[in-house]
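Sanity check record (used in CI):
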Amino acid sequence: MNIFRFAGDMTHLFSVLVLLLKIHTIKSCAGVSLKTQELYALVFATRYLDIFTDYISLYNTVMKLIYLGSSFSIVWYMRRHKLVRRSYDKEQDTFRHLFLILPCLLLALVLNEKFTFMEVMWTFSLYLEAVAILPQLVLLQRTRNIDNLTGQYVLLLGAYRAFYVLNWIYRYFTEVHYVHWITWMSGLVQTLLYADFFYYYFHSWKNNEKLQLPA
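Expected output for ER lumen protein-retaining receptor:
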């Protein structure tokens, strides 16, 4: 564990808490993409298949349980909660996220470090996480009406990935034989997808304007 990894975990955790705060207290999921949340639920379900077989540490297990529980809870709220689901903008959230799943699965079957079920599922989760934010970004571009909590949620997700990139760089120079090119490339793609959002977020903050993404 290093400071970059810890910062990444905490910003990821805060992003989940911000979204749950919005959904639970305001009873609204306006501006939130169900498609992205379903993709994240699939990411964690396939990445943490080893949760009951490979024990690393209490911290690691607790974080896995938090991500699994929170991701499926958010999907349940948006699909089933009688108040929250009314605010879901189904007409705008039309990104066909299923077309992201199949290419990522095929890529994981072809490009992986070890051709075993667990390894392929882990690799699949990396590829899918890299593009899971796309439906959310498209929804924000379409609605062009981003409330503070939704904006902070996406910002924290981007910061989480940026900290993880720094973590990989740090580990590359401090650990012997630390080479995980699949993880690095997936993380880099994911970070680049946030670049446009970061630009407009800080531009609106600097000018004290409401955050809007160009159509």
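The radius of gyration is 17 Å. If this sentence no longer matches the regenerated tokens, the check is flagged for review.
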